[in-house]
Design a protein that fits this description.
With 353 residues, the chain is an alpha/beta fold. The protein has one domain: pyruvate-formate lyase- activating enzyme, CATH 3.80.30.30. It is built from 12 helices and 15 strands. The protein has an 8-stranded mixed beta sheet with strand order 4-5-8-9-10-11-12-15, covered by helices on one side. A 5-stranded mixed beta sheet has the order 2-1-3-7-6, covered by helices on one side. It has a two-stranded antiparallel sheet with strand order 13-14. α10 packs parallel to α12. The radius of gyration is 20 Å and the shape is globular. It binds iron/sulfur cluster. The site of iron/sulfur cluster (SF4) has 8 residues, from loops.
Length: 353
């Protein structure tokens, strides 16, 4: 290999640009809708109109798989009509809806099931309505603090260059005495958010994992080194920082994988980033429905989804999921917790689930 190849920096994960863009007519009455329309024109994207963001039926593609891939590169710009927020335990009280869908191709992603046959990406332009609703939720719980999670149905950082919504919500929460925001991302395109007036009311989290997991199951997302570099910038900008290790996957060499992950974090994070740091840990789980969908969409996946090897955990409305058996879950939790405390003694572990 030539020296040039060895010294050349790893290519950067490119920012998302959709292939198709659909607009609901009403979206164009809002400044954000107009701004996205102008951007799509400037980028030379194929633009269509649609009666409703729930009604996109004419996506190109011969097979279901083709349609799925194209849907992941399709942006739909519309209005958020439902302003009733879902709950978002354990990370926050409510999910704040600013986008639905994601361009990433993480095999295990729960959007596979929650978005069903509509995996295209929707962004909402009526941000003032969404913020008004958030304000009402905050007032209902005063003087308690109300936390909102902005990444329940999407990866909003990866869409920020298109919508600008995250910055608006960050700045809104910055002014709320009793409101807090949090979100998680696998993308490193954080520049537009670095100068936001966050007032430390937003916890910026990055999703990280052992190399094996990132390499095998997270195509289409930023690489580990890019996420960590971005985490350093975010910490420098004064945001409280967090990491979500999820999904934690039992694989050959998992101890080494997760030890190395924590070591790399420890070596690369600037000291400032470690002052107010949180960790959340989520073990891999799947439902029967998810397994069927994942096997169709990623037929060669190495994701282990053998019900026999798992424990069935009953959930709400009789819908359960498969998690690791107790002894494996305990081993994962204890080992990773130890690694976190060894490297980041001041960090707070918020939960393992
Ligand atoms: Fe799903 Fe997050 Fe991956 Fe997007 S980046 S596909 S939201 S897990």
């Amino acid at each position: 290999m030539s020296t040039e190849l060895l010294t050349r920096p790893a290519p950067s994960t490119s920012i998302f640009v959709p292939e198709l863009v659909y607009f609901e007519p009403d979206a164009l009455l809002y400044p954000k809708g107009k701004q996205i329309y102008a951007w799509a024109q400037q980028e030379g994207l194929e633009i269509h109109m649609t009666t409703s963001h729930n009604q996109i039926r004419d996506l190109p593609g011969e097979s279901d798989l083709d349609k799925y891939r194209i849907a992941k590169r399709t942006l739909v710009v519309g209005l958020r009509k439902t302003l009733k927020f879902e709950t978002s335990k354990p990370s926050a009280e409510y999910a704040i809806p600013i986008a639905t869908g994601c361009m990433g191709h993480c095999h295990y992603c729960y959007l596979q099931t929650t978005m069903g046959a509509k995996p295209y990406i929707r962004v909402y332009v009526n941000i003032d309505d969404i913020l008004d609703a958030a304000k009402r939720y905050i007032e209902e719980r005063e003087p308690e603090i109300t936390r909102f999670e902005a990444a329940c149905t999407s990866d909003p950082v990866g869409l920020e260059h298109i919508s600008g919504s995250l910055k608006q919500i960050i700045e809104f929460m910055g002014q709320q005495e009793h409101g807090r925001l949090r979100f998680v991302t696998k993308y490193h395109h954080v520049e537009p958010l670095l100068d936001a007036k966050h007032n430390k009311h937003t916890r910026f989290r990055f999703s990280v994992n052992a190399d094996y997991v990132i390499k095998n199951f997270e195509p289409g997302t930023s690489r580990f080194h890019e996420r960590i570099e971005a985490a350093g910038k975010v910490a420098k900008a004064g945001y409280p920082l967090g990491f979500i290790i999820a999904p934690i996957i039992w694989h050959d060499g998992w101890e080494e994988g997760y030890r190395t992950l924590l070591e790399k974090l420890h070596h690369t994070l600037p000291p400032k980033a470690t002052q107010d740091l949180t960790f959340e840990m989520i073990q891999h789980r799947f439902t029967k429905t998810a397994k069927n969908i994942i096997e169709k969409r990623y037929p060669k996946t190495k994701l282990e989804m053998d019900e026999e090897k798992r424990k069935y955990k009953w959930g709400k409305y009789g819908k359960g999921k498969y998690v690791y058996k107790d002894e494996q879950a305990t081993a994962l939790r204890e080992f990773i917790t130890e690694q976190i405390f060894e490297k980041f003694p001041q960090a707070k572990i918020e939960y393992f689930t």
